[in-house]
C-alpha cells in the first residue's frame, strides 16, 4: 500500500517505447469517444487555479547509528569503523565537535484545493503531519504561509487557512453518491513535484474497503495518481470535487491504475466540522458489533444475511437506555439500510451528536424499532479486543463434559482464578477445545465462557448439551453461542451441530 506522497528525488530517467507503424495506424482509427470525453480541457481550464501545491518542512532528529559488534580482528572491523566515522562526518561538517549527527530539515510536497475564496484549503493529513511550517503554492507560483485549522486522522483529511494575496478561485463539492461505475473523472495534483498535472480515468469501484481505517469507503479510479497527488481533488465532468486523492496500491511506487479517493460526502462533513470546531465530533451508539455470517443468520432466522450483530452494549452508552441488547441485529439506522458492521460504523459516525434516531433491529426473528439519542465518540476510547488467557496447569482438574468439540465445566472459584475470569461473568467455562473441531476453527479457546446457547442463558454443561440435542432434533445446522472472555467482553459464535 502506498500513499500518494511526493518523491524524494527529482532525477528522472526517460523511457522510450518502440511502436510499429501498423500499430500506429490501428490507433489512429479508434473512434474519438474511446479516448475519453471532449470536455476534459474545459474542466481543467475552469478549475486549475483552485488546485494548489502544499509545501511543508520539518526538523528531523538525526539518530546516531551504533556500530555493529564484531569479533576482535574481524576483516570487517576496519571497514565498518571507516564507514561509521564517515557517516558522522568530521567536526564542523554535518556533525558537532564530537562528530555526532545533527538535527536536519526535510521538505515534502503534496496537493490540495481551495474550497473557499477566504483561503480555505483541503488536503490530506499525511501531507502536513508533523510539519513545522506549511506553505500553499498557487498555480501561478505564488507562495503563502498557511496555518492548520484542524485534522482528522481517521479519514486522513486536513483543513488549512491562508491569507489570500489576490482574488482566488474556489471549487465546490459534488455528490459522490451519484457517481456510477464507469463515469469519467479528472485528477489534478502535484505528482513527483512536477506541479499542476491533469490526468483522467473512470470510476473503477465505489465504497471500497481496503482496511486503512474504521470508515473506509473509497472511490477507486484508474486515473493516474502518483506520489505528490495526495490531497488533490478528483473531479466529475461538471467540475465538482467528488473525492480527495489519498493513496495508491502499487508494487513500484508509481501508478498502475489503482488509486483511491475519499468520497466528497465524507470530506464535506469533515471539512465543515473542522472549520466549526477544529476537531471531529462523531456520533456514538455504544455497542460492540460483529459480522452476520451465513451461519449466524441461519441461527437467527435472518434471510438473507445482513446487518450488524450487537455483541455487547456499553453500560454508559446511548444504546443501553434505548433497550438495545446483545443478540439484536441492526438492519436500519436513521432511515439508512445497514448491510454490514462497516456500514453501521460509518452511518453512526456521520450522524450528528445529540440527534434522536430510529434504529431498526431484528430480535428473535421479529423487527423492532428503538429510539436512540446519540452520544459523542471520544477518540481516546480503547479498542476492545479478545485476548488469549494465561493458564495455570497446576490447578485441580475440574469435572468436564463434552459438547460441540468443547470440554465444558461449571464455573468455580478455582477456574475463575486459573483463567482470570471476573466474578461478574456468568455461564459455562471452556476448559479444552478439540483441535479438529469447528470450535477450534472459530478460535474458541480454554478460558472462554459460554453465556447463552440459541439466545437462552446456560449455567451448566448439561444445559448446553440439552439445548444442542434439541436443536439437532429440530433439524438446525448450526447453534449460536454468546461467548465472553474473562473481562466480560462478548461475541457471538455459530458452530455446526450436525
From TrEMBL:
Catalytic activity reads:
Acts on substrates that are at least partially unfolded. The cleavage site P1 residue is normally between a pair of hydrophobic residues, such as Val-|-Val
Which InterPro entries does the entry mention? PDZ, PDZ_sf, Pept_S1C_Do, Peptidase_S1_PA, Peptidase_S1C
Q: Where in the cell is it found?
A: Periplasm
Listed GO MF terms: serine-type endopeptidase activity
Q: Looking at the Swiss-Prot or TrEMBL record, what is one Pfam family this protein matches?
A: Trypsin_2
- Active site per UniProt: 126, 156, 230
Domain PDZ intervals = 274-365, 385-486
Protein residues bound to substrate: 126, 156, 228-230
Q: What EC class is this?
A: hydrolase
Return the EC number. 3.4.21.107
The protein's name: Probable periplasmic serine endoprotease DegP-like
Species of provenance: Bradyrhizobium elkanii
